[in-house]
Amino acid sequence: PVKKGKEQNTQRSFFLRMKCTLTSRGRTMNIKSATWKVLHCTGHIHVYDTNSNQSQCGYKKPPMTCLVLICEPIPHPSNIEIPLDSKTFLSRHSLDMKFSYCDERITELMGYEPEELLGRSIYEYYHALDSDHLTKTHHD
């Protein structure tokens, strides 16, 4: 239930990984051979009030909610034609946000060797003043 007087943030932005069964030539392949594609999805939640306030049984129908998104594919890092700038590094993380890969640019930018970070959680490195933003990001 929404508290009165509080606005809901309906904006959404997230990354979604999906199996892709299309080849570069436009043909379909077996799902077991499919590759993973990453999409950046942005949009908002839309709530529609139902026309009739009550059903035949006397209970109020809940509003219909849908998510309206535009998703754009993100190229795989090995397929990026334009090199990443000198202030960007690439990392990969497990579900508990532990580094599973980190490229060597992190050394120049942050002072860590990639090997130092492997198996360590990203949460060990955030600044305390960023904790509110980090919490909000996880809850949105």
UniProtKB/TrEMBL annotation:
Gene Ontology CC annotations of this record: cytoplasm; nucleus; transcription regulator complex
Annotated InterPro entries: Nuc_translocat, PAS, PAS-like_dom_sf
Example GO BP: cellular response to hypoxia
A single GO molecular function term of this UniProt record: DNA-binding transcription factor activity, RNA polymerase II-specific
Domain PAS: 94-140
Domain of life per record: Eukaryota
Signal peptide: none
Cellular location(s): Nucleus
Alphabetical keyword list: DNA-binding, Nucleus, Transcription, Transcription regulation
Tagged with keyword Heme: no
Any Pfam family: PAS_11
Name recorded for this polypeptide: Hypoxia inducible factor 1 alpha subunit
The organism of origin for this protein: Ochotona huangensis (Tsing-ling pika)
